[in-house]
Amino acid sequence: MRLVSIRSVTAGSKLAKAIYNDNGQVLLFEGAELTNRVLDRLSQLGFTFIYIQDERTDDIEVESVVREETKRQAVKTIKAEFQAIADDIKLKKAFNSDHFSKDFSKVIQAILSDIKKNENALAILSDMFVYDSYIFTHSLNVTVYTLGLAVELGFNDKQLMDIGMGALLHDVGKMAIPVEVLNKPGRLNNEEFRIIQTHARAGFDMLRNAPNLSLLSAHCAYQHHERLDGTGYPQGLKGNQIHYYAKMIAIADVFDAVTSNRIYRKPMLPHEGLELLYSGVGKQFDQALVEAFRRTIAVYPAGIKVKLSDGRMAIVVKQNKQLSTHPVVRIMEENDKEISPSYDVDLMEQLNVTIVETETTLVASSLIG
Asked: What region holds the HD-GYP domain (predicted)?
């Protein structure tokens, strides 16, 4: 299968990976023909990339570190528990963590089990889902990324549970934000952004006195928007004033935010999101953590078209977790001509050859030309 830009898909192509909603229902089956009407609808839903069938790359498999069933059950749990919290807030009922902490612990344990069983780099771009609300899937993705980073850094099981709970609940304070602001289908004005910023303090206030939650989880909610140089919120903390767990979640939070579909903004590809993190190293993000995060994620998703530094065109076949910037690729073109048969190259064995462009820039260049 190949991962291609919606703009470059030819009508009549067939979908290589089913698309689901957050209830686990199939919206578009694998093998479905992609008509112009279907492609337009996918674009309206926010998809910029999809997987299509291609006989030259049929053997390329997109493996997800976290199983689809784990993700679907996790989103279902997050959605139900967060909505219950929102209902309690509306009714001005006291916050009670006894109920959901057990359910969230099961979610974290399931995610950790999947991550530890799989040696592949994390790739959430491969998930073909349409969701009702960004906050639920964002909470899941941030948890997956943060736990992947924490496993890479060697934290023990007790620490992993605290980190996972902090990541899963980092945005719980948004349940106190007015729905019209939280779900606004566009950019926020200054006053709306100020209201959104209150979610960090709100989350902390909800969690800090919960008897069966670590106080660290409360501080993750409180500090995940703080930045090393003091430009974050709500307290303007600097450097070591910010808890280490919150620094980890901040990286996962920003990375998922910029690589996710939003109504008002197209998503970045993973390597673009990583470049954004590197641009903030030392000012916003801890360098060692960003480096560890790079080792955790799939920088170039399987199936995407890339251009190599020697001019050859290729498709990413699989990841090298030891060096995620140098995956195994399949050479499809040499000297501006398609070749047959194609052949695979492990870029870890040819470190002088690098990826210089991906599908996004290649498509943009062809449109401009």
From this structure: 113-310
CATH 1.10.10.10 for domain 68-296, yes or no, is: no
Please report, for residues 126, 304, 346, the alpha-carbon distance to residue 307 in angstroms, rounded to integers and kept in the order given: 20, 10, 14
User: What are phi and psi for residue 307, nearest 5 degrees?
Assistant: -110, 135
Q: Any residues with CB less than 8 A from the CB of 232 and at least 6 apart, and which? A: 225, 226, 250, 284
Longest Cα separation, the chain: 68
What the block records as the tokens of 319 is 């990841």
pLDDT at 345: 96
The residue among 109, 117, 24, 37 whose CA lies nearest residue 73 is 24
Model confidence, pTM: 0.85
Confirm whether 1-53 and 68-296 share one CATH topology.
no
Cβ contact 8:304 at 8 Å: no
Within 10 Å of residue 246's Cβ, how many Cβ atoms? 23
Return the closest-CA partner of residue 223 out of 243, 198, 193: 243
* HSE (side-chain half, CA atoms, 13 Å) at 51: 25
Q: What is the mean pLDDT of residues 6-10?
A: 86
Please state, in angstroms and rounded to a whole number, the distance separating the CA atoms of residues 297 and 292: 9
Q: Does residue 314 carry a pLDDT above 80?
A: yes
What sign does the CA torsion over 236, 238, 240, 245 have?
A: positive
* Architecture label for domain 1-53: Alpha-Beta Complex (3.90)
Handedness of CA 344, 347, 351, 356 (dihedral sign): positive
Please say if the pLDDT value at position 200 is more than 70. yes
Q: Where are the domains of the chain?
A: 1-53, 68-296, 301-369
214 SS3 class: coil
CB 17 within 8 Å of CB 51: yes
Tell me which CATH code domain 301-369 carries.
Answer: 2.30.30
Structural tokens at position 224: 């995940």
At residue 307, the 3 state secondary structure works out as strand
- Of 75-84, 210-219, 237-246, 355-364, where does the model show the most confidence? 237-246
Stretch (H or E) spanning 195: helix 190-197
Write the DSSP string, 217-229: HHHHHHHTT--TB
